[in-house]
Amino acid sequence: MSFEHEALDKVLSRHGRDPHALVQILREMQEQMGWLSRDLLGVVARELKLTLAHVEGVASFYRFLHTRPVGRYRVLFSDNITDRMLGSVALMADLCSRLGIAPGQVSADGLVSVDLTSCTGLCDQGPALLINHRHMITRLDAARVAQMAELIRTQVPVLQWPAPWFAIDDGIRRADVLLGPPLARGAAIAAALARGAQTMLDDMKRSNLRGRGGAGFATGLKWELCRNATGSMPGAAHYVVCNADEGEPGTFKDRVLLTRQADDVFEGMTVAALVIGARQGLVYLRGEYRYLLEHLHAVLQRRREQHLLGPAILGQPGFDFDIDIHVGAGAYVCGEESALIESLEGKRGTPRIRPPFPVERGYLDQPTTVNNVETYCAAAHIAVHGGTWWAGIGTQKSTGTKIHSVCGDCERPGLYEYPFGTRIDHILEDCGARDTQAVQVGGPSGVCLSAFEFSRRIAFEDVPTAGAFMVFDRSRDMFEVARNFAHFFAHESCGFCTPCRVGTELVVRRLDKLANATGGGRGSRYDINVLFELDKLMHTASHCGLGASACNPLRDTIAKFRPAYERHLKSLHFEPGFDLDAELSIARRMTGRDDAAAHLENRP
Fold first, then answer.
1. Please, are residues 136 and 166 in contact by the beta-carbon 8 Å criterion?
2. Is residue 590 over pLDDT 80?
3. Residue 29: which CATH number?
4. In terms of Cα–Cα distance, which of 174, 60, 68, 62 is closest to 418?
5. Which of 131, 191, 210, 334 could lock 135 by a disulfide, CB 3.0 to 4.6 Å apart?
6. Residues 6+ apart with CB under 8 A from 232
7. Given a cut of 60, is residue 313 above it in pLDDT?
């Protein structure tokens, strides 16, 4: 038996030859083989009794899975806007120059490839990059890049590179309930058992805890709906899923909670299992956080040894619950709960049509509650201190605290936890922001606030957020910020629906045209009109929230920072009484959109 087949047999056996584990099997095989050849995919398909088309379709969907050879050193620079603000573009160009390769190419000897990836969740200590999909390097500078090039050329194993390069700080600047001292291990479970499942559910509803992933759905109601659902058959299994796929650029709070407060997170999942009657939990860990896998497995094993997981938890007969970890393979769209479930089932991460909702027909077509890391951490604290206590923090409609991932133009980037209702300018003052012109709250899919809005408050009834808080001072070009976000959405579209697949690409092309129009190019106000039309189309016709929110930063920045766009427009000298909208309408009917733009721009 060849090494490849022996390795595959071990991986398949470890996963019980379960086709639902396909993503994990492919990811683990790639870690050993470097990439996934078609022959290897064919063997996987036969062993799992799947079609080759299905296996190839899954392998080609995730950006961290490679069906063509990549470098033995696979270097991926984080391409978030904050990394760019810190000089990542020049650093990447320097590394490529030193290695004699172009971005996106593999060196002739197969040694190295250098490319871009989306935000790596290290915005507070960038520029950052990812090596071989499992090693993070922070705080890049010219000296580190020069030394890295030499280490790669001399083929020094990554684990022998300077240890300080891999240092990842928690960066907690302001702690409150969730980032403070962790709970006593087992305290939340014991408190929930003392209450009983129904009373614990009532307390969750009393707390008015809303999901911390961005949508803000009431957690207690979600658990109740899941508990009462029968799934595809009577007596169905129920599942608890933790969404740890925080792929929103600018967000890194879950990274720190999983590093410092993993017990609290797993405790919250176990409380949820008691309430809804689940026996199995799953953590969907984003691929960029692969480096946390061994740490999290160690925490889970310790909890099993302390009877906080497994059969008869804390000696309670019939309370059997355990947790497994599924590592993602690089797909922002899998942060959407139904796409996440598809990935858990070994498929492409394409969002499902809803209804039915996951609480009714989720993982393996059974009732499933999906909450994010921060939500489960909060649930554990509610189990210990009570729903009334939690409801007394924050505002009436937005109870409790919220963790903010603060990065960008500020002296003290990091994590800040505040009660809901805290003003934007309060956070800016605490993080040392100066001369701020804009704050992007909630990541690219959130809202961009200008200076006159800094008195607004973080709350579901005012400025909702999934946690990202990006700061931009007056030296930044907000057009370039929006353009970076547009490239992100185009790159991360799952490709399922035409409005999103095509629309995000058209937005990128139009913004790239405007970027190249500076200094007398072909940009015109017609381009702005087209962008608005694309926004309306994608918002109303996209299959899921990615396409619907892809133009949020574009819409906000055009409305609030119009001069940043005007600098990219060609001066048009229309005669008095010229009606731009009427001319556009006539030109579209006559020639189609692109020719219409030329028709207007070439007028005398």
1. yes
2. no
3. 1.10.10
4. 174
5. 131
6. 361, 365, 366
7. yes
Neighbours of 337 (CB within 10 A): 28
- Distance between the two ends of the chain, CA-based, in angstroms? 75
Q: Which of 102, 134, 169 is the last residue of a domain?
A: 169
CA 429 to CA 442: how far, in whole Å? 19
Residues 243 and 342 in one domain: yes
Separation of CA 455 from chain center:
28
Structure tokens at 475: 């030296």
Angstrom distance (rounded) from CA 591 to CA 588: 6
Query: Does 275 fall in a domain?
Result: yes
Answer yes or no: do 201 and 152 share one domain. Answer: no
Q: What is the pLDDT of residues 131-161, one digit of tens each?
A: 999 999 999 999 999 999 999 999 999 999 9
Nearest 5°: CA angle at 443, between 437 and 445?
110
- Contact by Cβ (8 Å): 292, 245: no
pLDDT, one tens digit per residue, over 253-294 is: 999 999 999 999 999 999 999 999 999 999 999 999 999 999
Per-position DSSP letters for 24-45, written without gaps between them: HHHHHHHHHHSS--HHHHHHHH
**136 in a structural domain:** yes
| CA dist., res. 250 & res. 414, Å (int) | 11
Distance of CA 327 to the CA centre of its chain: 13
Task: Work out how many domains the chain is built from and give that number.
Answer: 5
Question: Between the CA atoms of 513, 518, 522 and 523, what dihedral angle is there, to the nearest 10 degrees?
Answer: 70
Q: Which residues lie closer than 8 Å to 366 by C-beta, 6 or more apart?
A: 231, 232, 236, 237, 238, 239
Average pLDDT of the chain to the nearest whole number:
91
Bridge-based pairing of strands 129-131 and 447-450 is unpaired
**Cβ atoms of residues 44 and 38 within 8 Å:** no
Do 371 and 387 lie in one domain? The reply is yes
Tell me: do 360 and 261 sit in the same domain: yes
Between CA 559 and CA 553 the distance in angstroms is: 10
State how far the Cα of 99 lies from the Cα of 145, in Å rounded to an integer: 11
Domain extent, residue 14, equals: 3-61
| pLDDT exceeds 80 at position 432 | yes
Measured distance CA(198)–CA(381) in Å, rounded: 17
